[in-house]
Amino acid sequence: MNAQRPESWHEALHRLQRDGLPHALATVVTSAGSTPREPGARMVITADAVHDTLGGGTFEFQVIDTARERLGSGALGMSLEAFALGGRSGQCCGGFVNVLLDIFPGSAATLAVFGAGHVGSELVRLAAPLPWQVLWYDSRDGVFPDWAEAQPRLICRHAADPQAAVAALPVNSHALVLTHDHAEDRELVDALLRRNDMASIGLIGSHSKWASFRSRLTDAGHDEAALARVRCPIGMASGGTGGDKTPYAIALAALAELLPLVGYAERPDQRGLEPAQLRALFDEPSA
């Protein structure tokens, strides 16, 4: 039986980008003297795997360690790492290498969608091009459509216990509650509010539904500050008087409401390399 061919760096990069998983791309950008690989050599690094090589040896191990340290710290963007092969790297080549590390922290946000009905299905479809991890929950058996298996960054989960499903959510998740059952909706909102670490909470329904929920949730111990964290109805841009209340329109409006809440994961001051680093790179002696 033939062994499976290892993934190349570009195959791994495509898969990890598609699935929204944290990874680093290491690229040799300059080399002087005797070095293991020439400029342009690339390697992809994750917390538990390495794809392709920059030449091996202590130098490569140091690149991997540096990349994993930055991944573990949640660092974003690019950094330029210098390696003297014989100094920092303890190798006998005697050359000098600059490696560009580009850190991709994974999905920009996590969206938890509770409910695989008409609006939930449209939400998940519309979210596909966005760089978000989508967790799709439903308490019923066999309700997820076949097309969901091929959607990137999407995980479908049967959730018979709403409390346990909420407890398992990552910190700072954005949650949208739109199940087939009002009692389940209320239990989910109650559990989400008790977490106190959700980025946002949205609930489908009417103003009268929310008025009823507010009363029950107040009796359950949630104060006004907590209740103010819930957006209900979601998709207000489509759900006003005379508005389009089709599942697609509600889903589209609900995602539009989320976009400014999610924001952009990369700060302006973290884009690219510092000018001083680039100047030092281009002014570096060739030998």
From TrEMBL:
GO terms for molecular function: oxidoreductase activity, acting on the CH-OH group of donors, NAD or NADP as acceptor. It comes from the Bacteria. Residues 111-258 form the XdhC Rossmann domain. It holds the Pfam family XdhC_CoxI. Residues 17-74 form the XdhC- CoxI domain. PANTHER family: ALDEHYDE OXIDOREDUCTASE MOLYBDENUM COFACTOR ASSEMBLY PROTEIN, XANTHINE DEHYDROGENASE SUBUNIT A-RELATED. This is Xanthine dehydrogenase accessory protein XdhC. It comes from Vreelandella rituensis. The gene is xdhC.
